[in-house]
Design a protein that fits this description.
143 residues; alpha+beta; seven-stranded mixed β-sheet; 4 helices; 7 strands
Length: 143
């Protein structure tokens, strides 16, 4: 397993888009739209490689001077519950901490809330609906 930073518009970025579609949007009958992808060049993209194949990905979007939002985390279905998602989150937290960020926010699908809670994320506010699924805003302070 190798964790990498993915360069925007690279071949790895194209693999990232395919993985995000396959895991997050395709099952809902949705596609990533140009509006959703607008601005991704200014965001940080991370991935997990297994035998040179992208099996997990996460996007980190700076929101303000100290806050980053994790979004579009996707782990290939045959790699879920393997620990790769946990390692990816921990790696990304360390990278953004090194860049001076002190808080991570994310909007977790309701089914993923226990995963994030195990990593120290706390629910904030009420459950809301996005792309036909219930979500929960979650926050973690980085020390």
């Amino acid at each position: 397993m190798k964790i990498i930073e993915i360069e925007w518009c690279s071949p790895e970025y194209q693999s990232e888009l395919e993985l995000r579609h396959d895991v997050l949007r395709g099952p809902l009958g949705l596609k990533l739209t140009p509006e959703e992808l607008d601005g991704e060049h200014a965001q940080m993209h991370f991935g997990v490689l297994e035998n040179d194949e992208l099996v997990a990905t996460l996007v980190a979007q700076p929101k303000s001077s100290g806050i980053v939002q994790f979004r579009q985390m996707a782990v290939r279905s045959d790699q879920q519950r393997s620990g790769k998602g946990t390692e990816l989150i921990k790696h990304c937290e360390e990278k953004i901490r090194e860049q001076g960020f002190s808080e991570v926010q994310l909007d977790a699908r309701q089914t993923c809330v226990p995963f994030y809670e195990k990593l120290g994320y706390q629910p904030v506010g009420d459950v809301f609906e996005r792309i036909t699924l219930k979500h929960q805003k979650m926050v973690k302070k980085l020390s």
